[in-house]
């Protein structure tokens, strides 16, 4: 065997080692989260309120806040992202205006989330006087979510065959009707996958929420679902610490004795949720696609 | 006998408007993609209730011409000149392009059923235009599917996804879909190119039937198909209409040498 | 005349045409809203961030070169103590170190996934990296706090909080980002490049090193810049392990701070409109400008290196 061949073999062996090491690190990460965290997760942990000074607190309120904020943020951002992506994929011409807007969206998507959070703080908390509240948090998460969701939906729309658009236009329908009633339904599997993936990202976001949704989770009265009462779970004007913020908060200044258990349990729940989001994004997208093209 | 073929470059047949009813006609049509001229010199008249075939090698401008007729090129090209539909120039800004496309329907190369049921595919455009009466819609579905000669195959499966149909059936559903909005001209852009020979034959038979009620213009790369199916044929080459005549004449005694070369398979 | 009747019908503006106008405007306004948000962010933060200099009359020199951060008080030499240099240095240090450590690992892994064992890459590594890109930064911070900090403390001494811990955490955080983008750029290298090289008698390694990586260089650079942008802007994970002392870092294991860590820790404790608060907004402005610069770099690299197909 000559020198270059030997060199090649050694280099490739090295690459295999690096890959193995990376897999090891990643496996350790995921293993650590679940092995240390899952034993602390119980139904009681998931449903009971947090305790500040004593052991045995749960994450019930935080979990509810995370889900509620996620739903609100998605309800606000989905129509905007859909509109923007429709314009970008169907109407935008290849000119300076379009490229300026694309640059703006890129800038927004690469902005550190803490900067987005600070903007939300300035605009919603201070300027609009919403205070640290669900609504401030949801609007800030919307800003955080918009660029990626827009890009995901745009990609799904672009993957729909042009034949479909031609079909709609050929029947004398407007471009808009064709998009809304033909292209968007045809792109639905991709759009739903995109929405779920973005949900995972929103669900785990903390930096954008610290100064918008706040860092406290007052006890909620789960018997009162009138959004106009301040201790109702649905009240949009109450402060709402989410699960991700909770992990940060107790690790920065928590003093409860079971701090590590609560943190690791919360982290496991968070990662488990992301995992479910990831898997269901694939699964649901595929199912819908099959259903749309099948014989029933 | 001497060769009497016309040595000039082009031959375009003209109807006597006193005797024949012209449904569509183009005058001085020029189509530009960006700045480059893709198609010109095609002053052609289409007689009512006939089938006219547009033939020619790929890139000859036949599809570009067809797509200009119902202004499907609006977004991608600049179209100059007149497109007369029953005497009205539809190539002007004041014209409502959606009404034009309703009256001048189009069927495409690849079958493109929407991700809806067969029934939904056909009623879709009508519903968008405000027709919601179930009885009316049922009638339209049955009538158009019968016209497209696919009713017997799909009548029990009207609520199944149209995207699960075979190519031939899907293309017929697309024809039915186009007929549902009551056009009087039907443009077909190589509608059989994705179909097997049997489906193709059935499709041709269907078009012969439809000729009674519609004016049909069809682009095809298949010369036998043009010869079998059409009453008139236009031969396109390099973005120009070279010869327009009765189909029988084009295929037996073409007046232009280039046409002769093409139909006898010497190039293309 | 029948012609005129038809012409009238065809010229009447249909309901469909009105739908079209409506839809066009609706989607355009959604897009303009996003545009307005981006402009709003830049304008708001720039206004706030600049008031330190133009309202509180702090000089740029004091801000960017001063090493004592305690806004509202004076330094021993009598200037306002708004020296942001420790945070700026901290941010750059963790970012650059994390990128230096990540890059060889990321490229190695990406090469393994695309060139050496594409099957195993697609089956195991691909989904795992996708999952890791999605893991929230607080989880990384928590693991950093409970694994990395004790490890650094036991190995190198000190408290364990500092640049080194921050680097470790960021290394793992940006690794999946760089890997997945590098994989994309390696996949974009046309197959015939490899075939041609192998056909000329080059070994697999020579092909990877001299042909594939060379051709994918712009894409890989973009991936690294993206990773750096993520590291520079990361707030909570870093804030949890770096020690949060606004001091110039003496070594890699002494407590330090970054722009983001001071911002997250400090914003809640200051009063709007005070110098303390304005100074924090100036840090946010630096962060924003750096983010724009990273963007510009990506554009610049992208323009030079796109594959011609």
TrEMBL record, chain B:
Q: Might you name a Gene Ontology BP term for this protein?
A: phosphate ion transmembrane transport
**Organism phylogeny:** Bacteria, Bacillati, Bacillota, Bacilli, Lactobacillales
Tell me which residues make up the ABC transporter domain: 24-263
The signal peptide stretch is none
The entry's keywords: ATP-binding, Cell membrane, Membrane, Nucleotide-binding, Phosphate transport, Translocase, Transport
List the molecular function annotations (GO) for this entry.
Answer: ATP binding; ATP hydrolysis activity; phosphate transmembrane transporter activity
Q: Give the record's GO CC terms.
A: membrane
Write the protein's name.
Phosphate import ATP-binding protein PstB 1
Q: Which domain of life is it from?
A: Bacteria
